[in-house]
Backbone:
């Protein structure tokens, strides 16, 4: 490879544990330039340290870090009302300024590769590191009072199965393995039929597509996507 670019969302103040596992299982990448980016939903998101974590895992494989960048985006974290000030502050993102920063980021990485420059990085000591000492996923799972599939609504598309990073959801049995589940909300956020039922402290959550629909939000895509067949 000439360059490896790794992107991840920030979940629970860090890169998600399945991303950690994936990066940890990479083969040796000796001398290969690597850059990392994260998307995150809130200014308190610990995005810098999440990036450092990703680069550190790649550096352990002897890759050469050449770039890192964090892009704030509309948060896809389902809350009972999707109504916090933070959520509203990010509702217009990503915008053209975000995409300009992405373009600048890619220019900078390519320039560093051409010049053979590496990136020095170090994590910051932040109060968020104390929050991270809490078992955040476990606490969230405790707050989830119900997690199942509504058989009457389920259309059997198995999107939730594909999206679940840990194989915890079995829609045909209306069963979620709560021990395996890492509370990523991927099933809820991707079900096209509103069939994934999650109650948070007794209140039914709705997922990201439904939130976009209710708020009439359209995600702005970069101009480059018009010519992209993916
Ligand atoms: C389970 C979960 C946990 C999250 N935790 C954080 C967080 O700790 N900090 C943060 O800034 N954003 C957090 N977010 C918001 C995501 O970082 C945000 O939705 C991001 O845009 C996701 O990337 P994507 O837009 O590429 O899917 C979380 C989202 C989910 C679904
Ligand atoms: S994504 Fe929704 S509709 Fe599709 S199988 Fe899963 S629960 Fe059923
Ligand atoms: S929230 Fe849904 S997709 Fe995420 S781990 Fe749990 S069952 Fe799987």
Residues:
């Amino acid at each position: 490879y000439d360059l490896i670019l790794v992107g991840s969302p920030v979940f629970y103040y860090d890169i998600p544990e399945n991303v950690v596992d994936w990066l940890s299982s990479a083969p040796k990448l000796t001398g290969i330039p690597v850059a990392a980016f994260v998307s995150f939903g809130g200014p308190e998101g610990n995005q810098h340290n999440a990036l450092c974590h990703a680069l550190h895992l790649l550096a352990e494989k002897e890759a050469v870090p050449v770039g890192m960048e964090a892009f704030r985006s509309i948060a896809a974290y389902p809350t009972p009302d999707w109504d916090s000030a933070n959520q509203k502050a990010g509702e217009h993102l990503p915008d053209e300024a975000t995409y300009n920063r992405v373009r600048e980021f890619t220019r900078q990485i390519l320039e560093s590769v051409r010049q053979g420059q590496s990136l020095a990085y170090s994590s910051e000591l932040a109060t968020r590191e104390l929050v991270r000492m809490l078992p955040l996923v476990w606490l969230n799972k405790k707050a989830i009072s119900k997690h199942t599939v509504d058989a009457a609504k389920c259309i059997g598309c198995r999107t939730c199965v594909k999206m679940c990073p840990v194989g915890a959801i079995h829609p045909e049995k209306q069963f979620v393995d709560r021990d395996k589940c890492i509370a990523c909300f991927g099933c809820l956020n991707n079900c096209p039929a509103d069939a994934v039922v999650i109650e948070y402290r007794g209140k039914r959550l709705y997922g990201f597509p439904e939130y976009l629909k209710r708020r009439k939000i359209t995600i702005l895509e970069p101009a480059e996507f018009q010519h992209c067949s993916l």
In short: The mean pLDDT is 94.
